[in-house]
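FIELD: query
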Amino acid sequence: MKREELSKKMGGRILESYYDYASVKNLVYEGLEFGLDCIQVFPNMLPKVQEVLEGRRLDLCAVITYPHGTFLPEQKAFEIKDALESGATQVEFVIHNINVRSGNWELVREEFQACRKAAGDHVLKAIVEVEWLTDEQIQKVSQLAIEEGLDRLTTSIGVYTMPDENKNDVGIRCKPDDVKKIKAIVGEQVKVVAQGRIDSAEMAEELLLAGADYISSEFAAEILRSCAK
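FIELD: result
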C-alpha cells in the first residue's frame, strides 16, 4: 500500500504517562508531515498540542477514562465535553467492561447514550478490549454501538500484556480475528479501528484486509516511512 493511501487510515498516539512534551511536539509534527487521520493524546496534552499546531489543521483525538474505563457515564460525559472545549475534534472512551462482562447491558447502553450526547457531532469512538470478552459479549457491544450511533469501535487499548508459556509478559497484539469479530456485526454502520502493537506496514495491511477501516499505532510514523511513496 502506498504511503499516502495508508496515512489517511492511520492514527498516531501517545498513551503512556512516561512521555514528555518533546514527544508530544514530535507527534504533532509527524501528524502534519504524514497527513494522519488523527493523533491520540491524553486530554491534558491538548493545550501543548494546540500551541505546537499554531492554527494548522490536524484532527486531535482525546482519550477518555483511559485505560480502564470504570467511570460513571456522567464522569465520561464531563471529560468528553472538557476535551472538546480544549480543542479535541474526536474523542475515544474506554467502555466499562465490568458492566459488559457482567451482562449489565442497560448500563452499557446508558454509557453509550451519555457519551454520544456529550460528543455531539464530533467523531465518537469506543474501545472494546476484545482480548477480555467472549464472542457473545463482543457481538452485544457491537450491536449496542450501532443502536446508539457510535462512529467507531476500537479493538483494544493496545497496552495490555499476557504471560506466555514461560510466564514472561508479552504485549497483546491486534489480530485479524479481532477485527473480523466486530466487523461481522457492524458492517459499514460503525467503522472499526485496529489497535494493539501494530508495528509494521505488513501488519497494518493485514488488518485492513480483515476489515479494519483505520489503524491506530504508536509506530505510525515508522510504518509510513517504510512505505513507498
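FIELD: remark
The chain is about 45% helix and 20% strand.
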